[in-house]
Amino acid sequence: MKPRKIAALVGAGAVVLGVGAWGIWAGGLLGPGEHLPSSVTLFRGQTYAAPPEPQSGLDLAALPVRTPDPARALTPTQVQTLWQPLAELAQQSGWTAWAYIKDADTGEVLLDQGGRDGHTPASILKVLTTLVALEDLDATEPLQTGVSRVGSTLYLWGQGDLLLTAGTSTGTVNGQAGLADLAQQTASALTSQGVKQVKLAYQDRLFEGDSRLPAWTAQEVTDFAGDVGPYAIDTGRTSPGAWEFVDNSAAEVANTFAEALRGQGIAVDSVAVGTAPAEAEPVAHVDSAPQYEQIAFLLRTSDNTMAEQYCHLSALKQGAPTTFAGATAHLIDQLQQLGVDTTGLTLEDCSGLSSNSKVPPHVLVDALEASLRPGSSSAELLRLLPRGGTVGTLDERFGSPSTAGNLQAKTGSLGSVSSLTGVVTTAGGQQLLFAVGVDNAPGWTGYLARDPIDDFVTSLVEAN
Known about the structure:
GO terms for molecular function: serine-type D-Ala-D-Ala carboxypeptidase activity. This protein is α+β, with helices and mostly antiparallel strands. Helices cover about 30% and strands about 20% of the residues. It contains 11 helices and 17 strands. Helix 1 (about 75-95) packs antiparallel against helix 11 (about 450-460) and helix 6 runs antiparallel to helix 7 (about 305-315).
């Protein structure tokens, strides 16, 4: 079998240790003035250029790459033994435990416990969503928010940037495009043409159907996602970090922009929903960070709204229906096009919020494997994931010397679910693709499985 190749990020100027080095982001999220590194990605002896002109980099720390030692490779029997403590705890606790682990280089399946049964994934579903987004979209391009004009009527339009800021650009992924900047540019253009009074019409839809999944209401998870649509400020949150969202993100953007225009001396007589006619002339626009940086933000913060947005954007780009049902169907179709067996995969959303979604663990592992095929548009996926002990939702997990910076994975958590999927390198240099978790935990006790899951994954790293 042809060896698979796993990516490890190296920054320009990283110190080479042993046979190579891989980089970890020393910080968590992109901060002011920081950028995703202008770097190369190593595929064990092969290199290719990172996306051109990254708008955003983080400082890197170099770590040694372990040289694979076949004599120390884990066997299925060993992995089964390591699995037993978690399996026994799950049985005692009334959880359903599952796992699927594959050697990334040989393709050998080392553990298959419920690997082809559908399980509630929680947020590890975002791995599938972002894989398809990276395949479908021009990920180095920004999303634009802009203004066009016919006479005294302005038309506010958007390509789907949900990370706008009300003020001027923050220079970060969340807030790269500022409505105050757009208002200043618009007011300057209007003033130069002697226009001081306008009406504002705004685009209120980008997709078909509901802006939020109705099933979330019955499942009592509506506080964890905002609207999909043409634009939003901070994904529609009522305040930074809040688990509460405005009722109408598009209207919030339009009214905020109108106030910013008034602050620039332009009278805005009315704000109403409206679509720009074909003859509308462009006035101004602002750009988001490149879409792959927004995808990194999505993965590291586990942002549900952004996951649903990028699932819908993928469907829109490829001409598929853009309802929730259409977007999830497109996701499954694209996985099939990548050669992933989707038998048993049923999706109600793309973020993992819905407990009605079911994912066989092997689908997650096979999707990660598909991202590593030669020429893959989604080859950047692994480097965008959270990293153990350093980045995103794993910054306070896997902090031991054996796993910090080593493990790259997406976390998942619902009341009855705890899950993890990604890649890790063992002490013997064996690279493992894995999906592991529990669901059906009684009494919303899924969170109690997080530490045992971490212990199991760590035992894989430290064995042999």
